[in-house]
Amino acid sequence: MRLHRNLCFAVIDGLTLIFNEGQYADKVIQQLLKRDKRWGSRDRGFVAETTYDIVRWKRLYAEIAEVKEPFDRDNLWRMFAVWATLKGIKLPDWKYFENTPTRKIKGRFDELSKVRKLRESIPDWMDKVGLEELGESKWSKEIAMQNEQADVILRVNTLKTTKEKLQNILSDENNIETEFIKGYPSALKLLERANVFVTDSFKNGLFEVQDASSQLVAEFLDVKPSMKVVDTCAGAGGKTLHIASLMKNKGQITAMDIYESKLKKLKVRARRNGVHNVDLKVIDSTKPIKKLYNKADRVLIDAPCSGLGVLRRNPDAKWKLEPEFMDRIRVTQQEVLQQYSRMVKPDGKLVYATCSVLPSENENQVKTFLNSESGKDFIFVKDKKVLAHESGFDGFYMALLERKK
Ligand SMILES: C[S@@+](CC[C@H](N)C(=O)[O-])C[C@H]1O[C@@H](n2cnc3c(N)ncnc32)[C@H](O)[C@@H]1O
To answer: Atom 27 of ligand 1 has which residue's CA nearest to it?
Structure first.
């Protein structure tokens, strides 16, 4: 691979914004990719993947390069040189790479890789929490997998097409080849990365991009077309849209969130997907919740969480997450379980889900709930713990509870 100066500059600019100004990596990369209209898909891929890689490996690369935060541009070029050297890419004779100690970089990599928190490039506290909660063997494998690049998975919108038809359309119109995934009825996996958002199929709402594990959640809720369903933490609606397609656009879904901006995105996506059985409700007081007490056949609580199951997609979360946030989010998780479970009607069902792999956010929350006053009306039906290193997809948790008659 040959390094191109303007692409490398874009990466360094992006890293400055992410590391020094605390901006979100996905937003920064979106902006970077708009910089030069002449960039082809390989150029864009280089900018996005290299930026994500250096974000992912920040701690390890900074240790190898012997630089400390806040990073100046020279520091970032040194980290870039570490990335290139470890990838076996020949460094051009630009001034930024003068005197790069190639052999020393490889030696330090071997040495530092003996320590998990350096090898996997994570903060000390995260390594401690993962070890305490999952144990040595599972945590080591899980965090290693969380550092791999995730596959691109589509969820077919069965309101508009079938998996077979979409597979053919993507292949014929866009040269995008996909395969089915056993056990995931609506999923198509891309054989090679591609920008699927520019296809007509996406613009016409034939699919959404959604990880395979995330696709299990709506299925777990066991919805039927005539039901009244409340999606309490709907965000931009990844799971709401899936629920709507499983309900064949019938019945009624109330999608709620504390952020109106997220529900606005859901509105746009629902229109594209041809979904018209969803009402949007901002949670700006306890009123909209209380109004729905004992009304819903199904309630989904896709709770806010650490996101420790989806680090492959959000590597900068490693550096943004803090132990204090973890403590706060566990409190919120129990609160939403206590409050939102009251919307389930007798005989109705509740799914509590997170994209975390930590028992303290998952099964322990469910146990605490079931042992509490509000939980005594519910029985535990089943749960599913999805680890990325076992499934090959995102880490997720989902529990199905049923309210007694
Ligand atoms: C895991 S995300 C939801 C993802 C979404 N369900 C999807 O499938 O795309 C959690 C959501 O909970 C929302 N949230 C945070 N605190 C909340 C609360 N107290 N009540 C309701 N929603 C909340 C966040 O704004 C966020 O959108």
So the answer is: 235
